[in-house]
Design a protein that fits this description.
The protein is mainly alpha-helical. The protein is built from one helix and no strands.
Length: about 100
Amino acid sequence: MLGKSEKPKATSTQEEAPINAAALERRISFLYDIVSSLLTHISDLQIRAMSSQEAAFPRERKRSEAIEVLKTQVDLLLIQHQAEAFKKHQEVVGKSL
């Protein structure tokens, strides 16, 4: 059993080796380069995503405009059809009077 002043020993079989300043500096430099590279890559991906979104908006706008034109044409055709039907109806009514 452990006494009050004793601490449990680490169960790790690997001991940390002391590192000298030069090795630590190399590791920090390496990690800095990796992080910098990752941030640059993330920035590039964000720019690409924004460009893709901006490119999609005009296409969507063109589709919406085309749909609106088609709706207008259909409305005009329906009005024309109703006018022709009304004209025929007036002719029939006029003949019956």
